[in-house]
Amino acid sequence: MFTGIIAEQGHVLSVERDGDSATVRLHAPGTTEGLALGGSIAVNGVCLTATEIAGKEFSVDVMGETLVRSTIGELAPGDSVNLERCVQAGGRLDGHVVQGHVDGVGELLEREPLGNWERLRFGVPANLARYIAEKGSIAIDGVSLTVTAVSDAAEVNPWFEVGLIPTTLAETGLGTKTTGSRVNLEVDVLAKYTERLLAFNTPATAAAEGGAR
């Protein structure tokens, strides 16, 4: 589990494709400190496992499902990525509960400087829009943010907005995203579980559960 508080921006050294999978090697001095093989790291919000560690570098293997559902497959040598180690039990949860299970990819539609902060508007896949609520939480490329505005439920091309403070602009990759940039999105896990539970709250499922007792 993660919190959406980025610890470091790492840099992609290489991407080796092998059929429908890939191995990504990254340079990240802070992240590799104390990192053990098998450790979990969120790379642009995607939970991946350290498969090799050498000094200030580490590698992760990426399967086909992850390449399809996220922007990891678009990475190239020289790219910067947001990195976060998994949270330790008993540690502070400074952001919100982030699983590192990306739900889909969004697109930066607008960014507007407003004094020392910026407003960003992202397009979101229609199947994810219902999980995004004003004042709710969302992870964008692994960054925990508060939603400041959302489109109407009837909007054909749904969107949402967030505000970025100077620290977020400087310490994460969101500060350099340009219009058209694609980002990984993870919606609030509580919203997904709530919807799933309600789907079973029907006479048919109640009858089926009763018959199984």
Can you put this structure into words, describing what you see?
This protein has 213 residues and is of the alpha+beta class. It folds into 2 domains: 8-85, Elongation Factor Tu (Ef-tu), domain 3 (Beta Barrel); 104-199, Elongation Factor Tu (Ef-tu), domain 3 (Beta Barrel). The protein contains 5 helices and 12 strands. The strands form 2 sheets. Strands 1-2-5-4-3-6 form a 6-stranded antiparallel barrel. Strands 7-8-11-10-9-12 form a 6-stranded antiparallel β-barrel. β10 and β11 (159-164) form a beta hairpin. The longest helix has 11 residues, at 189-199. The radius of gyration is 19 Å and the shape is globular. 31% of the residues are buried. The mean pLDDT is 93.
Largest sheet features: 6 strands, antiparallel, barrel
What value does the Rg take, in angstroms? 19 Å
**Fraction of residues in helix:** 10-25%
Principal-axis shape equals globular
Count every beta strand, where a strand is a DSSP E run of 2 or more residues.
12
- Which architecture of the largest domain would the CATH scheme give at its second level? Beta Barrel
Number of individual domains: 2
N-to-C span:
34 Å
Mean pLDDT: 93
User: Helix/strand/pairing class, anyone?
Assistant: alpha+beta
Beta fraction: 35-45%
SSE series: EEHEEEHEEEEEEHEHH
Low-confidence stretches: none
| CATH class descriptor of the largest domain | Mainly Beta
Instruction: Quickly count the helices.
Output: 5
CATH topology of the largest domain: Elongation Factor Tu (Ef-tu), domain 3
Strands of the biggest beta sheet: in what spatial order? 1-2-5-4-3-6
Lumazine-binding repeats: 1-96, 97-198
GO biological process, one term: riboflavin biosynthetic process
Function: Catalyzes the dismutation of two molecules of 6,7-dimethyl-8-ribityllumazine, resulting in the formation of riboflavin and 5-amino-6-(D-ribitylamino)uracil.
Subunit structure: Homotrimer.
